[in-house]
UniProtKB/TrEMBL annotation:
Keywords: Methyltransferase, S-adenosyl-L-methionine, SH3 domain, Transferase. It comes from Vombatus ursinus (Common wombat). This is type I protein arginine methyltransferase. One of its GO terms (molecular function) is histone methyltransferase activity. SMART domains: SH3.
Length: 216
């Protein structure tokens, strides 16, 4: 179905425009040869023919040439502000202690991560570690406690990060672990990292030695 829709979209994009269509450039573009048009963001361009899904034939200031289709739109205005309700609901639920208590009490889950970090403590020593979605910071704390890493960046988007800062402090790792209350997509870290650790699945993880031989 997805393939069909894409093919249909491509067909629509390449079909000949019945009428020339005036579109707006959404970014600057510099032609790489004489068959293409150069233009600046905000300029109006006349699209004469949608030759392929990627390249349209158009006109700018009386000159014709190819325009990259992804550089033009109906208008410069942002079509729809990004929906944030899903993030609010998701991170809202992780902001409460209850879910974290459930995860920490999931003994097989927490014990497996504990075991893996312990088994790799030599490897983790002196490394810079990023804990993606650190929650209460349990993985960061395991790393800091067992492996003597150079630094641990613990990133958590929900309000839990505020508790995690306290947990780090009270466990005596404030000089090792830095907690960032941000989405990992948005965070700017102080530097490059060597190792990623992350537990993003929550509770009731099914484990098997055959599937994950690293745990042995
Ligand atoms: C399954 S929980 C695991 C928490 C913790 N790592 C543990 O093992 O107890 C996943 C956590 O990742 C956080 N998270 C999910 N997506 C994130 C994102 N894009 N940026 C930062 N944190 C995120 C959630 O808020 C949640 O606290």
């Amino acid at each position: 179905k997805v393939g069909e829709t894409k093919e249909r979209d491509d067909e629509d994009r390449v079909k000949e425009s019945a009428e020339p269509e005036e579109l707006v450039a959404i970014a600057d573009y510099t032609a790489v040869d004489e068959t293409q048009l150069s233009f600046c963001r905000g300029e109006k361009l006349l699209v004469l023919r949608r030759v392929t899904a990627e390249w349209w034939w158009g006109e700018r200031e009386g000159r014709c040439g190819y325009i990259p289709a992804s550089y033009v739109m109906q208008s410069l205005e942002d079509p729809e502000p990004e929906d944030t309700w899903q993030d609010e609901e998701y991170f809202g639920s992780y902001g409460a202690l209850r879910l974290h208590l459930e995860m920490l009490s999931d003994q097989p889950r927490t014990a497996v991560y504990h075991q893996v970090i312990l088994q790799h403590k030599e490897f983790l020593q002196d490394k810079v570690i990023l804990d993606v979605g650190c929650g209460t910071g349990i993985l960061s704390l395991f790393c800091a406690h067992y492996a003597r890493p150079r630094a641990v960046y613990a990133v958590e988007a929900s309000e839990m990060a505020q508790h995690t800062k306290q947990l780090v402090l009270h466990n005596g790792f404030a000089d090792k672990i830095t907690v960032f209350q941000q989405k990992v997509e948005d965070v700017t870290l102080p530097g490059k990292v060597d190792v990623l650790v992350s537990e993003w699945m929550g509770t009731c993880l099914l484990v098997g030695e055959k599937t994950f031989p690293i745990w042995r």
